[in-house]
Write a structure and sequence with these properties.
The complex is a heterodimer of chains A (146) and B (537). In chain A, 64% of the residues lie in helices and 0% in strands. With 146 residues, chain A is mostly helical. Helices cover 70% and strands 3% of the residues of chain B. Chain B contains 19 helices and 5 strands. Chain B has helices at residues 20-38, 44-65, 85-112, 116-135, 139-157, 164-194, 221-227, 234-251, 260-267, 270-295, 308-335, 341-365, 368-400, 420-434, 440-454, 458-484, 498-516, 519-526, 530-536; strands spanning 5-6, 75-76, 81-82, 197-203, 212-216. In chain B, a hairpin with an 8-residue loop joins strand 4 and strand 5. Chain B is globular. Chain B starts with a strand and ends with a helix. Classes of the chains: A mainly alpha (146), B mainly alpha (537). Chain A binds chain B through residues 21-22, 24-25, 107, 110-111, 114-115, 118, 129, 132, 135-136, 139-140, and chain B through 8-9, 11-12, 14, 30, 33-34, 36-38, 193, 198, 213, 215, 232-233, 236.
Amino acid sequence: MLSALLLQAGMSLTTARTPAGVGGPVSGYWPVMVFFAVAVVFPVLPVVLGRFVRPNLYGEAKMRPYECGIDPTTEAHDRFTVRFYIVAMLFLVFDVETIFLLPWAIIFMGDDFSFTKFALLEMFFFIGILVVGYYYAWRKGALEWA
Amino acid sequence: MNLSFAIPLSAPDVNFRLLLPELILSVTGVVVMLVDAFTGRSQRRATATLSLAGLAATAWATLWLWPSAQGADTRAWGGMIVLDPMRLSFTLVFLIVAALTVLISAIWVEWEGLPAGEFHTLLLFATVGMMLMASGNDLVMIFLGLEILSIATYVMAGFRKNDLRSNESSLKYFILGSFSSAFLLYGIALVYGATAHEVSAQPQASGALAQHVILAGTTNISAIAERVNDGLYPPLLFAGAAMLMIGFGFKIASAPFHVWTPDVYEGAPTPVTAFMAAGPKAAGFAAFMRVFLLAFPFVAASGQMRSTGAQLHDAWLGALWILAVLTMTVGNVVALVQTNVKRMLAYSSIAHAGYALVGFVAAGAADSAHQTDAVAAVVFYLLAYAVMNLGAFAVVTLIARSGDRRTDIEDYRGIGFDSPALSLTLSLFLLSLLGVPLTAGFMGKVMVFSQALGEGYKWLVVIGVLNTAISVYYYLGLIVVMFFRERTTEWRAPRIPTTLAVVLVLTVAGVIYLGLFPGRVINAFRAVQPIAVSSLR
C-alpha cells in the first residue's frame, strides 16, 4: 500500500521532470531513493524510541540466553551436521540451471532462427556439464543422508 | 512501464578455434573430475598426469594460435573474446604456473593424504578462469573469469580442512575477495551507465505500439573506448573507473588494498600460496591492463581543450603512479620485520606487484607503438616472478613438511651446509627476487624500469631502485640465516622427491635462461617479429 503510493509519487516526480522518459542518471532513481530512506528509518526508529520508553530492569534470570523458556543445558556453540548445507548447494546448482533455461527458452529462436541450432546444442552441453556435476556429487556420497 | 522490448538479437559469431585453449583445459578439468569420482583413492598419479597432459595440450593450442594473433582484428563471440599477443603471453604464464603447481603439490598431497583429484580439478578450473580473464574483451567476461578463478582459489586456500590457519585463510580470502568483486561489479555497472547511448529498439511483435528509444550502455572494452568522450554521464565514468581500480587492486594485492595478502598467504597450504602469488596476480594484471589500457585510453577530442577521455586517462594514470609507489614501499618495508618465511614472501609478492605496476604506468603513458613493448615488459616481469617465486615456494614446501610446521625463519637456521641442494637453490631464487644481475628478476626489473624511464617517469624508477635496496636486507637476511648461523635444534635433511627435483631443475633453468637470454621470450611476447615466433613454435 505504502510502497505503491511511494512508487506513484516517485514516478510522477520523474515524469514531471523528464517528459521524454529519458531521464538523467539520478532522477529516474527517485523511487529507489525514497525506498532506501524508508528502509533505513523503519528498523532504526523503533530501536531508538524503545530506548527511551522501555523500563530498564535487569536480573540474573533476564540475562540468561533464552531457549523457549527452558533453562539452557548446553553451550550455544554446538556442532550440527553440514548435510543441510550440501543439500542447499545441490539445490542451488539446479536452481541456477532453471534460471538459465528460462531466458534461453525465450530467445533461442532469435529473430530469424539463425543461431537456433547452436543455441540448442549449447544448452545440451550446459546440461551435460551439470549432469557431470550431479554425478560427481552422487559418487562422492553427497546424497547419502546417514 | 513497458519493458517488453529488446535490442535486436544478432547471432553470436561462433569461433571455437579462438577459444581452443580454454576449451581444452575445461574439458580436461571435467575429465579429471570424473576420473576422481570413478576411481578409488589410488588416482593421485593419474589425475596429476592427466592435468599435466591437459596443460601441455593447452600450451600447444596457445602456441598454435600465436601466429594468428598478429595484425588482423581477431574477435569472436560477439566481441567477447579477443586474440592478441597480450592474451596469449599471459595464457602461457598461467599454464606454466599451473603445471609447476601440480608438480609442487604432488609431494604435499601425498603427505597430507588429501583428495588429489579434487585439488587438481580446482586448479585446472582456476586456470581456465585466469585464461578467460586474459582473453575477455568484455567486462562481463572478465568478471566471469575472475569469479571462476576466485571461487576455486577460496576452496584451495582452505584445503587443509583440519587446520585452523587454513580455514582462517580461506574465510578471510573469501570475505575480502567477495568484497572486492563487489567493487569490481559496481564499477562495471557504473561504466555501463556512463557509456549509455540512445538506442532505438524494435518493439516485440505484440503489445508495443511505436518504436521505443531506450538507453543502452556497453561493457565491451573496445566499445567503451569509442564512447569515453561522448558518454552521457562523464562523472559516472570516473567513479566506475575508480571502482574498477579498487577491485583489480585487490586482486593483484597492491597497497593499500593488500591487507588480506599476508594472512591468506601464511595460512593457505604452501603449494596453494605459491599458486596464488604467481597465477591470480598475473591474471589480475592481465585484466587490469586490458581494461585500463584499452577501455580508457588517451582520447583527444576535436575542438575541446580537455576531453573526458584525456581527463580520465590523466586521472587513472596518476592514481596508478601512487598505487605503484605505495605498493613497492609498503611491501618492502613491512617485509623487513617478518619472522615467518611465508609472510615474508607474501610481502615480497606485494612489492613485486609494485614493480610490475611501474611497467603498467609506463604502458599507460606510452603511445600505441610503445605500448606493446611496455605490456610485453610487464608480462615478462610476471613470468620471471612466477618462475622464481614458484621455485622458492617449492623449497619452502619441502622444508615446511606436512602440516606446514616449519615456516619460521628460525627453522632455516644453519641448514645451509646440511642440505646444500635446497639452500643453494633457495638462495638463487632469493637473489633473483632481489634482482641480482644474471637472474630473471634482474632482467624483469631492467625491462619495466627502462620502459618507465623511456616514458619519463624518473622518480618512479628512483623509488623502485631505492626499494630494491631496502629488499636486500630481508632477502640476504634469509641467506645469512641459512649459511652463517649455528643450528641449535636437530635437523634432518629431507629427501628431495622426484617431482620436486623436476620443479627445482625447471625453475633454476628458467631463472638463469630468462636472466641470460631474455630476447627470444620478450620478442615473442611483443609479437612484432614473426621470425622469433616461428622459431618458438
